[in-house]
Amino acid sequence: MRSILCAVAVLVGVFLAADSAQAQDPFEIQVYDATANPVGVPGLELHLNDWVTGRRFPSGSEAPLHGQFHATFEPSWGVLPFWEVGAYVQFAVRSDDGVADWAGAKLRSKFVTPPTWDAHWRLGINLEVSYLPATYDANRWGSEVRPIVAYEDERWLLAFNPIIDQALARPGASEGPVFDPALKVARKVGPVALGFEYYGGIGPVASPLPLADQTHLLFEVIDLLSIEHVELNLGLGEGLTPASAGMIVKAIIGYTFEKSATLPPPPVPQRTAR
User: Could you list the residue range(s) of the whole structural domain that residue 6 is in?
Assistant: First the structure.
């Protein structure tokens, strides 16, 4: 375990050493709750979101978010009880041309406390590297360090992700690490959980943006709890500042596959006497 913790610390150091700047992720609108796939079990999520209204004008090389529809496929795999790896393959349809467009890919590695660590508290960290076309991220290459703190009991789910996003190339490389916090509060009611998700884009850690230029999004969400192996998260979000003004509709549909049962060994042929 000590060697694993050392490896995580080294990776975090590499990520934090890179200069960067990156806005709140418009493709993956999700708060991590420090859970992971069981060992050897694959999972698949489909992230869908529609920026119904929003920024109408380009920002440098980046297309305006207004009218963009995003679809992201996220396969994952449980490596160890505390380690899950995954990837994202992103696509977008923009209102300016209506053509489906490849919007980049990401690789991630998530470390969490094992299920036996505590009955209610969970901790974790997600490390991510991404490449996006300049149409969707002027920096192209980026990284993410996402600490995870979560609490869950029979009534409540609380999760906080104080995310540090960082560009690995210019123009954002000179701005330093960017703080993008995310928070989820949900109350379980029978087969569903009702709650709120918050996503912020505060700007560079060393020099936060003025409040009017920051991104602050609040989603009303509902999560399905009653179907085993199935995840369903639906949300309607609104921007709370001039820079984030607009409405977003999102859905996450996920499935965790059952672990294959171990097949019994084939019977040993019996030799017959001759």
Answer: 2-256
Contact 76, 42 (CB under 8 A): yes
The answer to whether position 266 is within a domain reads no
In three-state form (DSSP H/G/I as H, E/B as E, the rest C), the secondary structure along 155-181 is CEEEEEEEEEEEECCCCHHHCCCEEEE
Which two tokens mark 219?
A: 């989603």
Q: Is residue 8 part of a domain?
A: yes
Q: Which of 238, 159, 237, 142 is nearest to 193 (CA)?
A: 159
> What CATH code is carried by the domain that includes residue 124?
2.40.160.40
Rounded-to-integer distance, Cα 265 and Cα 242, Å: 65
In angstroms, the CA 230 to CA 24 distance is 27
| pLDDT tens-place string over residues 115-141 | 899 999 999 999 999 999 998 988 899
Query: pLDDT band for position 188 (50/70/90)?
Result: very high
267 falls within a domain: no
From the list 54, 61, 133, the residue with the least C-alpha distance to 95 is 54
3-state secondary structure 97-126: CCCEEEEEEEEEEEEECCCCCCCCEEEEEE
- How many domains does the chain divide into? 1
Provide the pLDDT for residue 71: 97
pLDDT tens by residue, 206-256? 999 999 999 999 999 999 998 989 999 999 999 999 988 889 999 999 999
CA distance 39 to 44: 15
Four-residue CA torsion sign, 207, 213, 215, 216: positive
Residue 265, burial from CB neighbour count under 10 angstroms (0-12, 13-18, 19+): exposed
Collapsed DSSP state (helix, strand, coil) of residue 8: helix
**Is 239 inside a domain boundary?**
yes
Whole-number pLDDT of residue 235: 98
